[in-house]
Amino acid sequence: DAWFNIGNLHVEQGDYDQAIAAYQKAVAAAPGFAAAYYNLGQAYYAKKELSEALAAYQAAVRVNPKHAGAWHNMGIVYRDLGQTELAVQAIEKAVELNPMLLR
């Protein structure tokens, strides 16, 4: 949890490289920590490192298949990568898990 919180502080300061390093330490220490993978994806996405963001979101849903936010953001990354069919599938999964995403 400490590395996760440190990563969050770095994100608040806009220091995505340090956030990524902290989140990587968080998932190394706790490989089942879906929120750390999700936030790692967020930090990579902020840096426009789409392949890395996608891998982090995929790890989040492997750990927690019901993580609607990770499915949603995975869809956004697929869209940005021009993989429309995969984007639709991921967004549909996100909405299935959390219908409030339609609002």
Characterize this entry briefly:
The protein is mainly alpha-helical and 103 residues long. It is built from six helices and no strands.
Structure description:
By secondary structure, the chain is mainly alpha-helical. The protein contains 6 helices and no strands. Helix 1 packs antiparallel against helix 2 (16-29) and helix 1 packs parallel to helix 3 (34-46). The longest helix has 14 residues, at 16-29. It starts with a helix and ends in a 6-residue tail after the last helix.
Features of the shown structure:
globular, mainly alpha, 103 residues
Supply the number of helical segments. Answer: 6
How would you sum up the global shape?
Answer: globular
Reported for the largest beta sheet, the result is: none
Give helix and strand order, one letter per element, not per position. HHHHHH
Mean pLDDT: 97
Distance between termini? 31 Å
Class inferred from helices and paired strands: mainly alpha
Low-confidence stretches: none
The amount of beta strand, in percent, is under 5%
Radius of gyration: 13 Å
Report the count of strand segments: 0
DSSP helix fraction: over 70%
Write the layout of secondary structure elements.
Elements: H1 2-12, H2 16-29, H3 34-46, H4 50-63, H5 68-80, H6 84-97
Helix pairs in contact: 1-2, 1-3, 2-3, 3-4, 3-5, 4-5, 5-6
